[in-house]
Amino acid sequence: MKKIKFIEEFKAFIAKGNVIDMAVAVVVGGAFGKIVTSLVNDIIMPLIGLITGGFNVKDAKWVIEAAVMDGETVVTPEVALTYGVFIQTIIDFLLVALSIFIFLKIILAAKSKFEKKEEEIAEEAPAEEPKETTEDILSEIRDLLKNKNN
User: Fold this and answer.
1) Which CATH number fits the domain that encloses residue 35?
2) How far is 67 from 77, CA to CA, in rounded Å?
3) What does the pLDDT average to over 77-100?
4) How many domains does the chain have?
5) pLDDT of residue 19
6) What global pTM score does this model have?
7) Which of 15, 54, 85, 130 has the highest local Cβ count within 10 Å?
8) 39 is a domain residue
9) Are 88 and 45 in contact (CB under 8 A)?
10) Those residues with Cβ within 8 angstroms of residue 130's Cβ, 6 or more apart along the chain or in another chain
């Protein structure tokens, strides 16, 4: 149940158009970018290559027109769609977005706990007794004088 809720929150986060959330995502995403790219290039993609029998996703391409060679010299370079690089970029993006989402979720949870504790402290604090006003003092003096004269 928690896993489904987490995935739904993550989808809502990606689809959200809130400017502040997106600005935070850009800043934090830039900070995490190099780490996530290294994670994808150096850990995840080699594991995927191992699972797929040595296939490197980054090298996947659709050759539209093969290169024309004259011996070892390239006369006309190949024309190809390198969709493997695109797939790897998508994985990078999703991991950056996931990292930002988790980071913000932790920050917002900590902020919520802090605000809740402040509210509890405010509720537990004894209410200050109201200070006597000049009118209260004069009323007491009047009452004392009345009692003294009676």
Assistant:
1) 1.10.1200
2) 5
3) 84
4) 1
5) 61
6) 0.50
7) 85
8) yes
9) yes
10) none
Domain that holds residue 34: 2-116
Q: Does some domain include residue 12?
A: yes
Mean pLDDT of 62-82: 89
> Which long-range CB contacts under 8 A does 88-92 form with residues at least 24 apart?
88/40, 88/41, 88/45, 88/57, 88/58, 91/40, 91/44, 91/45, 92/33, 92/36, 92/37, 92/40
- The two tokens of residue 68 are 């024309």
Phi, psi (degrees; rounded to nearest 5) at 87: -60, -45
Neighbours of 45 (CB within 10 A): 18
Whether 127 is in a domain gets the answer no
CB atoms within 10 A of CB 21: 14
How far is 140 from 65, CA to CA, in rounded Å?
103
Q: Which pair of structure tokens corresponds to residue 103? A: 């980071």
Classify residue 149: in a domain, yes or no.
Answer: no
Per-residue pLDDT of 26-62, as tens digits, reads 887 777 777 777 877 788 878 877 887 877 778 889 9
